[in-house]
Amino acid sequence: MNEFGSPVPVNRYEATDDWHAVDRYFTSTLVREDSILAVARDSGDATTMPNAEVAANQGAFLEILAKIAGARRVLEFGTLAGYSTIWLARAVGEQGQVVTLELEPENAAVAKANFHAAGVSHQIETIVGPATESTERLINDDTEPFDFVFIDADKPNNPAYLAAALKLTHSGAVIVIDNVVRNGAVADAASADPRVQGVRTVAEDIAAHPDLDGTALQTVGEKGWDGLIIARRR
Ligand code: SAM
Questions:
Q1: Ligand 1 atom index nearest CA of 178
Q2: Residue 92 CB: number of other CB atoms within 10 A?
Q3: Which of 85, 136, 170, 175 lies at a CB distance of 3.0 to 4.6 Å from 231, suitable for a disulfide?
Q4: Domain 17-233 listed as CATH 3.40.50.150
Q5: How large is the average pLDDT for residues 172-201?
Q6: 211 within 8 A of 233, measured Cβ to Cβ
Q7: What is the pLDDT of residues 23-45, one digit of tens each?
Q8: Residue to mutate (ligand 1; options 1, 39, 102, 158; most atoms within 8 A of CB)
Q9: 150 C-alpha vs ligand 1 centroid, how far in Å?
Q10: Pocket of ligand 1 (CB under 6 A)
Q11: Rounded to 5 degrees, what are φ and ψ at 34?
Q12: What does the pLDDT read at residue 5?
C-alpha cells in the first residue's frame, strides 16, 4: 500500500500502457478537464497524499452522476486538493452546495485556494477534522438532507461514513464509494488489511439495508485496477 491508502499495484496488475492510452483517448475526446481542474490536480503534490485524486474521466463521471441524480446538495468525505469537489460543485450549479470533509488542515488550505481559482468557493463548505466528528455535528445540527454523497476518505471508516450518510440523506439519494476493488484484494475475505475489511463491511451493510439498492463496478486506467460502489436510497 502506498502512504495514502491506495494499493500499490503488483506487477501483474500495474496500470499498463494500454490502460493509460485508453484513458488518454477518452479524456481528450470526451472529458472537459479545463486548466483550472488541471491546476487543482497538479496541486495534489502539495498535499499529504499526492496523486490520490480521482482520474479526470472519473471526475467527469461523478459530475454526470450527480447531474443525473438532480443533486443540489452534495456531501463529500475526503477533500484532498478539492479536485473531485470542483467537479461536484460544477454539477450542482450556482444554486447548489457541496459540503466537503477533510482531516488535514494543510490539504483543506490547498483545496480552498483551488475553489477560489475555480470561482466555486461560495458553493463549497469545507469542514476540517475527522469526518466521523464532522458528520456527528451535521447530524446534531439537523442539516438539510443531501442528495448525493461521495465517500473517498480513510477506507476503514467506510461503514461509519455510510451510517452517517444514511442519517444525512433522503429517499432517492445516491451514495458513491471510491477505491473498493483495491487491486482485487476486496475478494479476499481473510485480508488483514483494515481498508479491505472497511470495503467488505460497507458492501455487506448496503446489501443488508432494506432501503438501499447497490452495485459495484471494477475500473482499470491510469489509477490502476480499482472500482466504485454505487448505492441509492429507495
Ligand atoms: N476526493 C479527493 C479527490 O478525488 O480529489 C481525494 C480524496 S483522498 C483519496 C482522501 C482524503 O481523505 C485525504 O485528503 C485525507 O487527508 C482525507 N482523510 C483521511 N482520513 C480522514 C478522516 N478521518 N476524516 C476526514 N478526511 C480524511
A1: 9
A2: 23
A3: 175
A4: yes
A5: 97
A6: yes
A7: 999 999 999 999 999 999 999 99
A8: 102
A9: 11
A10: 48-49, 52-54, 78-80, 83-84, 101-104, 107, 130-131, 152-154, 157
A11: -80, 180
A12: 54
